[in-house]
Amino acid sequence: MDTSPQAAVPEVLVISFNLSQSDVELYTAARQLLLTAHHSENHRVAAAIRGASGAIYVGLHIGSKRINVCAESSALANARIAQETSIRSSVAVSMDELGDPQVTNPCGVCRELLRNYGAEATVLVDAGGQVGTVSLGELLPYPWMRATETDWSTQPPEAMQPY
User: Fold this and answer.
1) Measured between alpha carbons, how far is 13 from 143 in angstroms, rounded to an integer?
2) pTM flag (> 0.85)
3) Alpha carbon separation from 71 to 125, 132, 136 (Å, rounded)
């Protein structure tokens, strides 16, 4: 396995629009939760995560004037409480202007958090109005990590010399 910094550079984002029944079930679980619990300030997003066991866990955005906790965080917490060791897939939904739940892309914090529990897991994303799936590793190609967590030494940046 090549662990050089060049090997860590992603080539192309690979998205699939061939959704499975499992993907649709995940979306449906998040959609149903949002339809029953939506509140324009306190519960704006719902999420569903499929654990390694195949079970689905849902989560809900929890908000107040000072803090917001993402729906993916609570879905992941529910999966871990149920002893799931990793996740296979994830989706988040938020309401559109007509009150219909739509797939929404995870924020940066959720991308990092979810990747810690399944770098090869897939996430349903809104790709310009069409729902597709992409791996979390591709969605977050350069995850946050400490220098001591890499297999390489990063050289200091150098400016290119003009010719």
Assistant:
1) 15
2) no
3) 15, 20, 17
